[in-house]
Design brief:
Largest sheet: none
Order of helices and strands: HHHHHHHHH
Distance between the termini: 23 Å
Structural class: mainly alpha
Helix content: over 70%
Number of helices: 9
Shape: globular
Length: 238
């Protein structure tokens, strides 16, 4: 537990030092201003998408930036020879970035409620932010553990993010609906976010699917992330 506490302190130090906290908070303020300035975006479907994209981007983008920094500064090499456990390292990334996602979402939803008069469901908000954040953090870690440069990571991240989000967004928008899209974990995430502003729109099976399917994928990705950490970082000395 003490190792995890120390790792969390280190993670929040990095988040502050590299202005990731500032960027995250600024981005949700810009999201809110955009919805107020563009009338067509001031709708529940866009609010749900913006809520989804924030933890998704924080997860998959910022975890990559943090790991690449640790690689370039030989921090991982130093951590490997300490009593640090793989689970502590992964959990420190998951907890710190998920907390940041929750803070950003709280700011966005508070602004929407105070200045836009929009009500929300705290149940769907909490599950949506936490599960989506963890899901994308683990995916980002699996990707970045194999790569050495920011350019490689940005390309891989963009491709994976497009594959993960484009089909569910087609389904959500009604432009093209296909039952196969329910295999995408991000389809489950987007369903939960739809319930934030309109909980009555979801059926019971959709709620169960949205939560349980993401948890199953989180379990799979956590296992894969541990293997990736050992194979591509520990066994190669960082």
């Amino acid at each position: 537990m003490s190792n995890l506490k120390n790792m969390l302190k280190w993670e929040f130090t990095l988040l502050y030092r590299y202005k990731i906290i500032h960027i995250s908070i600024l981005s949700v303020i810009l999201y809110f201003l955009t919805t107020q300035a563009i009338e067509d975006m001031n709708r529940p479907i866009f609010h749900s998408l913006l809520l989804f994209f924030d933890p998704a981007i924080i997860g998959i983008m910022f975890v990559g930036a943090l790991v690449l920094f640790e690689k370039s500064e030989n921090v991982l090499q130093a951590l490997i020879i300490t009593p640090m456990k793989t689970d502590d390292y992964l959990l420190s990334k998951i907890i710190s970035l998920t907390i940041l996602s929750c803070i950003s979402a709280a700011i966005f939803i508070t602004l929407m409620n105070i200045f836009g008069g929009i009500d929300f469901n705290i149940f769907f908000l909490a599950f949506g932010i936490i599960l989506t954040s963890i899901l994308l953090i683990l995916l980002g870690f699996i990707l970045v553990s194999r790569l050495k440069s920011i350019n490689e990571y940005l390309l891989a991240m963009a491709l994976f993010f497009l594959v993960l989000t484009f089909p569910p967004m087609l389904h959500l928008s009604g432009l093209y609906e296909n039952v196969i899209f329910y295999l995408w974990p991000t389809q489950a995430a987007l369903l939960i976010f739809r319930g934030v502003f309109n909980p009555s729109i979801l059926e019971t099976w959709e709620i169960a699917y949205g939560i349980v399917y993401q948890i199953v994928w989180i379990g799979i990705l956590f296992f894969l992330a541990r293997r990736a950490f050992y194979k591509h970082i520990i066994s190669k000395g960082g």
